[in-house]
Design brief:
- The protein is of the alpha/beta class and 392 residues long.
- It is built from 14 helices and seven strands.
- It folds into three domains: 29-212, Rossmann fold, CATH 3.40.50.300; 215-295, Helicase, Ruva Protein, domain 3 (Orthogonal Bundle); 305-388, Winged helix-like DNA-binding domain superfamily/Winged helix DNA-binding domain (Arc Repressor Mutant, subunit A, Orthogonal Bundle), CATH 1.10.10.
- It has a five-stranded parallel β-sheet with strand order 2-3-4-1-5, sandwiched between helices.
- Strand 3, helix 5 (148-168) and strand 4 (182-188) form a beta-alpha-beta unit.
């Protein structure tokens, strides 16, 4: 029989994906309570919104937890008839002060015309918030993705918005000023973010922070169990010590739940191929060794085709010993007339994703608009996969 329709291992493959957002969050109870406590002030007699910075490395669940808590926060606000507007922005999508302010204005006042001047956007935001009585919470994710030469001005503008709104209400030109609350949650992978900022921004920016530490092996086991309980695979196929070994391998690799889920998925796939009835630790060790060797290559193979085309451009720039940055990638992309037409922002998002996955990396990060990138350490794996996929 060519197609295996009755695998005894995998029931719902999508539940093993790192993109899957579970209904029940495990391993982050403390962080959920802390974030919820900060937001609870909005429901008190004298309401306020939090000003908070959240730190944590990739794979520690920051974005998942924040979205989970904010969803509950919006539901409670609706029940208590307290209006709240949550502005969601990603640093990988909006890398400059202009782009961030444009996102804010578009989401709070879509009826207002968008100016091409940054200062005008700021003025319109303050005016809208002052006159319309909006309660606004800005959730700026991936702060570390904002251009370094723009980072200071972006965070200064956001940190000062509350004071700017209060000051504007006392000025002429603001008709019928309304009560409003303003807050922000900033999220970054970089624990030394404040060191990059000027003194005026440091003094203006909140000192309240919440840190997401790496998952420990016990928490990773709980995460894996939750996926299994949700129906990813049959419980009875997991042998003794299997989940504990997967968690240990993940921590040993300096990874978090992402690697553990990939390893569990790979183990299940191999077991299904061999028509095994049970997964044991020997199989985990075997698959883990292969996964370590091919981790980067598997990530590249799983990229969407358009992402692979952008990676090919980066590879060609490297082979030709040319500078690799967002501008040179964009210039080369425009020459590829056979590719789908997207804007510069979309190309920047793809480049940011490739960087997050460790496929490309930054070699210098000076205070310039462009960061120099490289693939030198990963050249062999990239070349091998591109040839295998017939891109070379």
């Amino acid at each position: 029989m060519l197609f295996n329709e009755t695998t005894e291992i995998i029931k719902r493959k999508e539940l093993l994906s790192i993109e899957y957002v579970p209904e029940t969050i495990v391993g982050r109870e403390k962080e959920i309570k802390e974030l919820a406590f900060n937001l609870s002030y909005f429901f008190r007699t004298n309401p306020t919104l939090p000003t908070l910075i959240i730190y944590g490395t990739v794979g520690t669940g920051k974005t998942t937890i924040i979205n989970y808590v904010l969803k509950k926060f919006e539901e409670s606000s609706k029940e208590k008839e307290k209006k709240i507007k949550i502005i969601r922005i990603k640093g990988s999508d909006s890398k400059t002060k202009y782009e961030v302010l444009k996102q804010i204005l578009t989401q709070i006042a879509p009826d207002m015309p968008i100016s091409t001047i940054t200062a005008d956007l700021h003025t319109k935001i303050v005016k809208a918030l002052s006159e319309r009585g909006l309660n606004v919470l800005i959730f700026l994710d991936e702060v570390h993705e904002i251009r370094e030469n723009e980072l200071n001005s972006v965070l200064y503008a956001i940190s000062r918005l509350g004071e700017d709104i209060a000051y504007s209400k006392s000025k002429k030109g603001i008709t019928k000023p309304q009560k409003s609350q303003f807050g922000y949650i900033l999220v970054s992978n970089e624990f030394l973010l404040r060191n990059k900022l000027k003194d005026n921004t440091k003094s203006s920016l909140t000192r309240e922070n919440l840190t997401f530490l790496r998952y420990n092996p016990k928490q990773i086991v709980e995460i894996l169990k939750s996926r299994i309980d949700a129906g990813a695979i049959k419980k009875e196929v997991i042998g003794e010590g299997v989940l504990e070994l997967i968690a240990g391998e993940s921590v040993k690799e300096g990874e978090d739940s992402r690697y553990a889920l990939k390893l569990l998925s790979a183990v299940c796939k191999e077991a299904a191929k061999r028509s095994l009835k049970k997964i044991d630790t020997l199989l985990v060790e075997e698959v883990s060794e292969d996964l370590k060797k091919n981790y980067l290559k598997e990530n590249i193979k799983n990229l969407p085709d358009f992402y692979l085309e952008i990676l090919l451009i980066i590879y060609e720039l490297f082979k030709n010993d040319e500078n690799i940055n967002s501008k040179t990638i964009w210039d080369e992309y425009q020459k590829k007339t056979y590719l789908s037409k997207v804007n510069f922002s979309r190309i920047s998002q793809i480049v940011s994703y490739l960087e997050k996955e460790g496929i490309i990396y930054v070699t210098t990060s000076k205070k310039t608009k462009l960061r120099n990138l490289s693939i030198e350490e990963n050249k062999g794996e990239i070349e091998e996969v591109l040839k295998e996929l017939e891109k070379l």
